[in-house]
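Hi C.,

You asked whether I'd gotten around to modeling the 110-residue construct. I have! Everything is below, sequence then structure, no commentary in between.
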Amino acid sequence: MLESLQIQNFQCHARLRIDLDPAVTTIVGDSDRGKSAITRALRWVATNSPSGDAFIRDGSKGATVRLTVDGAVIARRRGKGRNEYALNDNDYKSFGSGVPDPVAASINVC
């Protein structure tokens, strides 16, 4: 079960935490306030897409997205000289364009 999403320096979000409800979570707001950025951040941590670093917030050195799933914390980080995943205490730095297998298994994404 997805428990929470934390976003730092991803597109318009300097810092955001969303606690996800076990049944339904709805994100509402005015136009151009970052709703789509939230879904992009979730997709980035789950699928390693989009590639590159254009999503890093202007003026920031890097972006981090943390997803808590069934008690496991998955972090996706990108910045100058940094392109990595972490699953709890394990770091993954050479994973190509996909998602490291242990991370994919934790979020049940193939």
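If it helps when you're writing up: The mean pLDDT is 93.

Thanks,
B.
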